[in-house]
Amino acid sequence: MTARAKHPAFVVPGAIDALVALGKASKEVPGVDVKLLELLHLRASQINGDGANADRHPRLAKAAGETSDERLFAVAAWRNTPYFTDAERAALALAEAVTRLSDREDAVSDEVWNEAAKHFNEQQLAAIVLSVATANLWNRLHVAIGQVADPNS
User: Fold this and answer.
1) pTM score over 0.90
2) What is the spatial distance between Cα 149 and Cα 52, in angstroms, rounded to a whole number?
């Protein structure tokens, strides 16, 4: 299997640098665990059908310190498993809402936002939203070109 086109982030000058910088910035906010961001990226990738990133983000989560295979396996069904903290559940709900904008009229409800705000301050929430938005951008690029999972990435 091969992608149908070259990756747009490498075709357009400066695009990859901008995407990497945005991802890096969201990971550097104090109090935002990179393991959590990787779980959020995994969930967004599952929702968006991005096999390349659904394959990649469990490895990145492990590299960031995630030790529980159960948590990685259960991200798609996080509401019905005991593996996540209240803060992680709030972040996962926010990630799903940000990813599924067209599914509801009130895409990111006050209920979802306020629950996340109980666990994260303004800068941390901003980092989570930027991180999920970046994951969704990568997902859309990968799905558009038919990016294939690379077990070595």
Assistant:
1) yes
2) 4
Q: b/e map of 58-85 (b: 16 or more CB within 10 Å)?
A: bebbeebebeeeebbebbeebeeeeebe
Of the candidates 18, 17, 23, the residue with the CA atom closest to the CA atom of residue 38:
23
Q: What is the pLDDT of residue 118?
A: 98
From residue 27, how far is each of 82, 91, 131 by CA, in Å?
26, 14, 8
Contacts of 19 (CB under 8 A, 6+ apart): 9, 134, 137, 138
Residues 121, 27: contact at Cβ < 8 Å? no
How far is residue 110's CA from residue 93's CA, in Å, rounded to a whole number? 12
Give the residue ranges of the chain where pLDDT is below 50. none
User: Are residues 98 and 4 in contact, defined by beta-carbon separation less than 8 angstroms?
Assistant: no
Tokens of 106: 């009130």
Count of residues making up the chain: 153
Angle at 113 between CA 111 and CA 117, to 5 degrees: 115
